[in-house]
């Protein structure tokens, strides 16, 4: 059975470095036989969470805010895996990806979170040469804590330096790692 993967691009640049890296993960997933649908969060209308907590009431389904998240919720529930991509902005993920993540709070409730057992692949890029000094490690820690809490499995991370748009593609070893992560996400190869 073909795996269903959703890719969420958190960069405001359609061909930014994190998007280039995520597209390579997508290629690996497709090569391994998965179906992949990609979303550019910058182009979507996603409002911030209002902390009303209605999404966690027994009689409500998803969030009461009517925006583009409404069409994403059923897709996320049905998906086997997710690709989350972001540039590092001021020591963490982009606002676009953070808004998306905050609104995934609505996928919890009386029955638990809808992420249980899903595989997650993460692509991060930053302008510094050091993942600690750049803030990438802060973002990785956020993902580790969040996905452990909702019982999802991080299939892997790919991350690297790329300041000018698209320059990450020159890092052939990283592109291969991203492609291989896509295969792992699709279940066609074992994690290392």
Protein model, in words:
With 192 residues, the chain is α/β, with parallel strands linked by helices. It has one domain: Rossmann fold (3-Layer(aba) Sandwich), CATH 3.40.50. The protein is 34% helix and 19% strand. The protein is built from 6 helices and 5 strands, in the order βαβαβαβααβα. Strands 2-1-3-4-5 form a 5-stranded parallel β-sheet, with helices on both faces.
Q: Specify the overall morphology.
A: globular
Low-confidence stretches: none
* Tally of strands: 5
Please identify the top-level CATH class.
Alpha Beta
Radius of gyration: 16 Å
Our estimate of the beta-strand percent is: 15-25%
State the CATH topology: Rossmann fold
Tell me the helix content.
Answer: 25-40%
Going by CATH, the architecture would be 3-Layer(aba) Sandwich
Topology:
Elements lengths: L3 E6 L7 H15 L3 E6 L28 H10 L2 E7 L7 H9 L15 E8 L4 H4 L1 H14 L3 E9 L10 H14 L7
Features:
globular; single chain; Rossmann fold; 5-stranded parallel β-sheet; alpha/beta; 192 residues; 19% strand
Briefly summarize what is shown:
The protein is of the alpha/beta class and 192 residues long. 34% of the residues lie in helices and 19% in strands.
């Amino acid at each position: 059975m073909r795996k269903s993967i959703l890719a969420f691009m958190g960069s405001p640049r359609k061909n930014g470095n994190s998007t280039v890296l995520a597209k390579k993960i997508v290629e690996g997933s497709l090569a391994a036989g998965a179906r992949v649908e990609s979303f550019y969060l910058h182009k979507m209308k996603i409002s911030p969470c209002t902390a009303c907590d209605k999404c966690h009431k027994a009689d409500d389904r998803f969030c009461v805010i009517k925006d583009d998240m409404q069409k994403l919720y059923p897709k996320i529930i049905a998906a086997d895996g997710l690709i989350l991509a972001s540039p590092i902005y001021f020591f963490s993920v982009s606002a676009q990806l953070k808004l998306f993540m905050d609104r995934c709070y609505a996928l919890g409730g009386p029955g638990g979170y809808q992420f249980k057992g899903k595989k997650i692949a993460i692509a991060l890029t930053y302008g510094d040469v050091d993942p600690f000094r750049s803030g990438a490690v802060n973002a990785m820690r956020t993902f580790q804590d969040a996905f452990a809490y909702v019982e999802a499995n991080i299939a892997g991370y790919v991350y690297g330096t790329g300041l000018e748009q698209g320059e990450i593609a020159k890092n052939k070893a990283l592109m291969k790692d991203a492609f291989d992560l896509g295969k792992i996400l699709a279940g066609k190869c074992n994690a290392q």
